[in-house]
């Protein structure tokens, strides 16, 4: 995995959300959470796994909506942040955080109703193996996002501390076929890359995001999008 040492540092975990999801970054947080809920809801009573859960943004969100959810990550520091978030939200008794390797998920086949990963596949050195493992332990839904090769993301990708693996649509379709998954739906968003929004104050980010959405809804929007959300079925 790219940037493992950077990702697992205590100071990165402590500052992760403040740096990414404050100011203009709150628009990213809202969109990502909406994408997860659109794909997996209703969650009440479902057994769900989040791979690479980080600080538990989505793990806690799903627990609040009644999911029996496990959040797994390689970073102890990120998991500590997640447990604190769960306690603050009052759902610590309704979820589990565990350290684990996404390439060898410690669960039997068809154990979960849904498996998802956000902000993960751009770091994957062996994406086919990771996706196949997600498909193996899910009996229904698999959901994940990718950063797109032919987009504004590519303009600053090399400057990021971990870099990013960028995907074309055909590459994702090949990965889905290889994992035995059928695509149910896909969505494409953010003509302007995430890094741009994180530099903006909220008052300025809102109107720019409105223009971004309008362009994204146009006939060429899908081809300009820097992020794609993929909802597949086993």
UniProtKB/TrEMBL annotation:
<dbReference type="Pfam" id="PF08241">
    <property type="entry name" value="Methyltransf_11"/>
</dbReference>
<feature type="domain" description="Methyltransferase type 11">
    <location>
        <begin position="49"/>
        <end position="141"/>
    </location>
</feature>
<dbReference type="GO" id="GO:0032259">
    <property type="term" value="P:methylation"/>
</dbReference>
<dbReference type="InterPro" id="IPR029063">
    <property type="entry name" value="SAM-dependent_MTases_sf"/>
</dbReference>
<dbReference type="InterPro" id="IPR013216">
    <property type="entry name" value="Methyltransf_11"/>
</dbReference>
<keyword id="KW-0489">Methyltransferase</keyword>
<protein>
    <submittedName>
        <fullName>Methyltransferase VNG0294G</fullName>
    </submittedName>
</protein>
<dbReference type="GO" id="GO:0008757">
    <property type="term" value="F:S-adenosylmethionine-dependent methyltransferase activity"/>
</dbReference>
<keyword id="KW-0808">Transferase</keyword>
């Amino acid at each position: 995995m790219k940037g493992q040492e950077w990702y697992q540092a205590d100071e990165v975990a402590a500052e992760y959300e403040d740096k990414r999801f404050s100011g203009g970054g709150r628009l990213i947080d809202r969109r990502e959470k909406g994408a997860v809920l659109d794909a997996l809801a209703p969650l009440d009573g479902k057994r769900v796994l989040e791979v690479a859960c980080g600080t538990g943004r989505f793990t806690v969100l799903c627990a609040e909506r009644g999911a029996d959810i496990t959040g797994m990550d390689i970073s102890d520091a990120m998991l500590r942040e997640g447990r604190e978030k769960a306690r603050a939200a009052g759902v610590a008794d309704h979820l589990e955080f565990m350290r684990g390797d996404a390439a060898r998920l410690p669960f039997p086949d068809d154990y979960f109703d849904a498996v998802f990963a956000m902000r993960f596949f751009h770091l994957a050195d062996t994406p086919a193996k990771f996706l196949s493992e997600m498909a193996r332990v899910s009996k229904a839904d698999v959901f994940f996002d990718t950063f797109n090769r032919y987009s504004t993301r590519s303009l600053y990708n090399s400057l990021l501390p971990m870099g990013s693996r960028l995907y074309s649509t055909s590459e994702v379709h090949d990965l889905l076929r290889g994992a035995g998954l059928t695509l149910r739906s896909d969505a494409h968003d953010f003509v302007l890359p995430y890094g741009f929004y994180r530099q903006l104050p909220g008052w300025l980010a809102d109107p720019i995001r409105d223009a971004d959405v309008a362009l994204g809804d146009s006939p060429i929007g899908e081809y300009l999008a820097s992020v794609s959300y993929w909802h597949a079925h086993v």
